[in-house]
Design a protein that fits this description.
The chain is of the alpha/beta class. Helices cover 41% and strands 18% of the residues. It folds into three domains: 181 residues, Rossmann fold; 94 residues, Orthogonal Bundle (N-(1-d-carboxylethyl)-l-norvaline Dehydrogenase, domain 2), CATH 1.10.1040.10; 170 residues, Roll (Thiol Ester Dehydrase, Chain A), CATH 3.10.129. Helix 5 links the parallel strand 5 and strand 6. Helix 2 packs parallel to helix 11. It binds nicotinamide-adenine-dinucleotide.
């Protein structure tokens, strides 16, 4: 298995930098970010919220992993101790060079610097950079947290072992690095995109098809093929039984016909810009960028799941983050960070779009889903996560009682506050309370409670056994810290016909 990394730096936290932060924390990596824009953190949090939704959809029933994020106040601070530095500042050569000079000066021995540049040559970026032999282009695709490919391009000064280490690191964080053999403007992906983009502009400019119609030709047809087979394999099938050679012989002559405008570029003027924007606006059917991004992510997640089920293409790159974390050390501060004052809050999130029923309210089994995510996070923080399960022990839920108190709609921010009752023996008694963050006072308003009895189990022996001291100590410590408080309302309650009668009277 590739050697992973535990600390990374992201320099520039816009669309792509935010995506890298998400990709890295999904892999359990601590990330230090530097971006001089005071609004950058809010932008990154929005990307992280989309990533969180995507991870919940990708790995149902599993709490998304989250490495720690630190917002640094300088490049040097962010880069200190990082094994991977990913630069994602705007695509201007002078800016890239200046930023890389600072990164290089603060770089740790053995670290790798990847530039997200879409096509600037790494040889020029690294020219005067200290430790420039550790720098290469590492060009991802948007959204970085879902699309696995990253093009790796070395420059004149790039050391072969920096490339080798980069291939290891990007693989370890669930990506598919493609090492481009020769340094060339725009690498591979953007050269292909550029050809299609140029032709699309001509078709709009000449009034052959609208922006929306061109998108339809792609999304209803050739795009669906490309996502699974790419250019060559798709054409290979076009030859039918005669094979790829037959296809090439049949269609080779058309390459000399004037079908495409090749390098010719339409004049870039206000009229063309207005036309493209208006046609694309009409095609977007009033959906905002945020809505379109969520639709894109949901579709990408479902495509990836289909490809994984068929053991094909990008589906093969999917790495379950829980499996990847088995031999990782649990973050020591995770439990402390769950405390909000004296409240233990193991889970925060939002009601996902596909969690609602026909009333547009969170559907009933998702209440249990949220409570089980909170339980999983708490178990992880107390030492009972996937690594512990791999040793043959686990916590099994023996009994659950959920009270549905109020409804909640898609998009609402919610969190779970937990009371722990444990003497560190075989049993663990949890009382979760789910709240909506809606400005109704400090704590939001109560949506549901979930009371659960868990047993600590030796899986090989098939029976409940006392928890080991390290885990017992964590639960007993929480239980003692909460012991002075009133018992939660509804704890130990059963279903009562009297109450039901009252409610229906
Ligand atoms: N947007 C895409 O689809 C895409 C895809 C692949 C690669 N890229 C490449 O990724 C890079 C970033 O593109 P983007 O779309 O995220 O741009 P962006 O404008 O969304 O983000 C750039 C960020 O860099 C920050 N920044 C500016 N100067 C900085 C400095 N000196 N130090 C640290 N941060 C600084 C800005 O405040 C901004 O938040 C570019 O090289 C681009 O070519 C973009």
């Amino acid at each position: 298995m590739a050697r992973g990394i535990s600390k990374a730096a992201v320099i520039g936290g816009g669309v792509i930098g935010g995506g890298w932060v998400a990709r890295l924390i999904n892999a359990g990596c601590a990330v230090s970010v530097f971006d001089p824009n005071p609004d950058a953190a809010a932008g990154i949090e929005a990307v992280l919220a989309r990533n969180h939704s995507a991870q919940l959809r990708l790995w149902p029933g599993q709490a998304p992993r989250r490495g720690k994020i630190h917002y640094a106040t300088s490049i040097a601070e962010a880069v200190a101790g990082a094994e991977l530095v990913q630069e994602s500042v705007p695509e201007r050569m002078e800016l890239k060079q200046a930023v890389h000079a600072e990164i290089g000066a603060a770089l740790e021995a053995g670290a790798v610097v990847g530039s997200s540049t879409s096509g600037l040559l790494p040889s020029i970026i690294q020219k005067n950079m200290p430790n420039g032999d550790r720098m290469l282009a590492a060009h991802p695709y948007n959204p970085v947290y879902l699309l696995p490919v990253v093009e790796i391009v070395g420059g004149d000064r790039t050391a072969p072992d920096a490339v080798a280490r980069a291939l290891e690191i990007y693989t370890a964080i669930g990506m598919v690095p493609v090492h481009i053999k020769k340094e060339i403007d725009a690498f591979v992906g953007d050269r292909l995109l550029e050809a299609m983009w140029r032709e699309s502009l001509w078709l709009v400019r000449d009034g052959v098809a609208s922006a929306g119609e061109i998108d339809d030709v792609v999304r209803y047809g050739l795009g669906l093929r490309f996502a699974q087979m790419g250019q060559f394999m798709t054409y290979r099938l076009g030859g039918g039984a005669g094979g790829f050679r037959h296809f090439l012989e049949q269609f080779a002559p058309s390459l000399t016909w004037p079908w495409t405008r090749l390098m010719d570029v339409p004049e870039w003027n206000d009229a063309l810009v207005e036309r493209i924007v208006a046609e694309s606006d009409a095609h977007a059917e009033g959906l905002s960028v945020d809505e379109l991004e969520r639709i894109r992510d949901n579709n990408l997640v479902d495509f990836l799941k289909v490809l994984a089920a068929n053991d094909w293409g990008a589906g093969r790159a999917l790495q379950n983050p829980v499996a990847a974390s088995l031999d990782e050390k649990m973050p020591e501060t995770m439990l402390e960070e769950m405390f909000d004052g004296d409240k233990l809050v193991p889970w925060r999130g939002r009601v996902e779009d596909d969690w609602t029923d026909y009333n547009n309210h969170m559907t009933e089994y998702r209440y249990l889903h949220v409570f089980s995510l909170a339980t999983d996070e708490l178990l992880l923080a107390c030492g009972g996560g996937a690594g512990y399960v791999a040793q043959g022990f686990s916590f099994y839920t023996a009994e659950t009682h959920i009270r549905h108190i109020d409804e909640v709609a898609a998009g609402a921010e919610i969190y779970v506050e937990t009371r722990v009752f444990s003497d560190g023996g075989k049993k663990l008694h949890l009382f979760h309370a789910m709240y909506a963050v809606d400005g109704a006072g400090d704590g939001g308003h109560l949506l549901a409670t979930g009371e659960h009895l868990l047993l600590h189990v030796d899986m090989a022996a098939g029976r409940a056994v006392p928890m080991p001291a390290s885990i017992a100590e964590a639960f007993v410590r929480i239980a003692k810290s909460q012991a002075g408080r009133d018992l939660p309302q509804g704890m130990g309650a059963g279903i009562s016909m009297n109450k039901t009668k009252k409610a229906t009277n």
